[in-house]
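Handout, section B. The chain below has 285 residues.
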Amino acid sequence: MDIKKIGYLGPRATFTAQAVTTLFPEKESKPLVTIPACIDAVVNGEVDVAVVPIENTIEGSVNLTIDYLIHEQPLKIIGEVIIPISQHLMVHPYHSSNWKEIEGVYSHPHAIAQCHKFLYDEFQHTHFEYTTSTAAAAKYISENPHQKFAAIANELAAKEYGLSIVKRDIHDFENNHTRFVVLHKNFVELDHVVKESSGNKTTLMITLPSDRAGALHQVLSAFAWRKLNLSKIESRPMKTGLGNYFFLIDIEQRMDDVLIPSTIAELEALECGVKVLGSYPYFRI
């Protein structure tokens, strides 16, 4: 598949932009304001694929990405890239010498949550403002130099927007990684990427029959006896009523001709709903 333009959660220098340049360093990219805007851009033909965050090791799943894919725009996952996340505290150079006197911290909600311990220790009485991305926070700080505000973002954002990093690696846990998915209208092969894949996955969405005890156990058993390794299972509300959930399951292999299709057939025989969201390579940086 020839990818010409990639949409991603902007502005420039977000972690999502880093994921894009990691996989597609020579492709044209288009920053967009929100995750739904990235997904809609693929549907409307403004871009060929979108790259959006789907999970962080500290904060868990990005529910907006999952819910928008399931309930609004059912794009296909054709690839995944996992990158390390380093969060830094940065200010306008005007305030680099008195940064402990800042009056507000701006960043994406996940970034603020990832740095909870540092913020509690250093800025217990400072207010926090949420932005659509970490780079958007850095951009805002750069455009308001006379306000005593700081941003939490990455090193690319500091360079892009001329900010001074006053405290590095303020995230609570060292093993901080985020998964980003590459989305397309159809099931297509992800070609012409610069990295060798680290492995393959297949992602299924499964709904259980409402009146069958032990249905989830039967679902997991269908994978277990075939020795299909599951790297993730997660429940999300169907939004149709209390107690109604669907399950997202990641299988550590590409769709084959026998094992996964026969598993799906068994699940459907158990009156489960099964939908393939993608079968794709993943890349670990």
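Note. The chain has a mean pLDDT of 93. Compare this with the example in section A.
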